[in-house]
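Dear colleagues,

As part of the handover before I leave the project, I'm documenting each prediction I ran so the next person doesn't have to rerun anything. This entry is a single chain, and its sequence is reproduced below.
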Amino acid sequence: MADRDSGSSRERFRPGHDVRFHSVTDPEQARLLTEPDRLRLFRPFLARERTVSQVAAETSTDLNRVLYRVRQYLAAGLLRIVREERRPGRPVKVYRSVHDAYFIPYEVTPFATLEERMLEQMLPAMRERIRVQARQIAKYGRVGQSLFRDELGEVWFASATDAALRTDWLDPHGGIDYWTEVWLTPKEALELREVLYAALERFGARPVEGEVPPEPGLRRFHFSVSTVPLDE
């Protein structure tokens, strides 16, 4: 696979220099922009033009469900009609977000605490990740879990095909996903962050939502990384 790092790839993960953020003060707008199911169907309209049928196809969502959400976004002042495309019968409306970027203060979201908001937003992704993992585990014959301490003294709990085989973290079938603790100096923690971010820069290029993948054989993978100090 070719290295898709363009040299300025870090800009992909930041808004453009001329983008102006709209600060949200309305609780209904905040709800629609933070609750996962409502945000999912708003994202395709953000800073670009889309029809209801295009969004339905991109998100694999029923057309009537998208239309229902569009009416909510319009009523809340998040979406606007930019034009109508003529065709036989009823013209097709083209929508775009009212603003190209939003800043949503935590205090106007419908959650009692920041922890509650983060949990609500992350649960759908966690459920999807677990669903895919379970399917992969069953597909490749991992019929149980092994509990062991490795040669460095670390305890691991991992899915396995049987008691005799060791866990192969680089098994080409399926993926890799684990949560563990490591001991790092502040300097090492920064170095690790740089390594992980470099991986995101190199492999994080992806088609824009709704576009055809630019390379043959390109597949979607879940890429999840977290380095969080546990003593703060």
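DSSP finds six helices and six strands in the chain. Residues 181-232 form one domain.

All the best with the project,
I.
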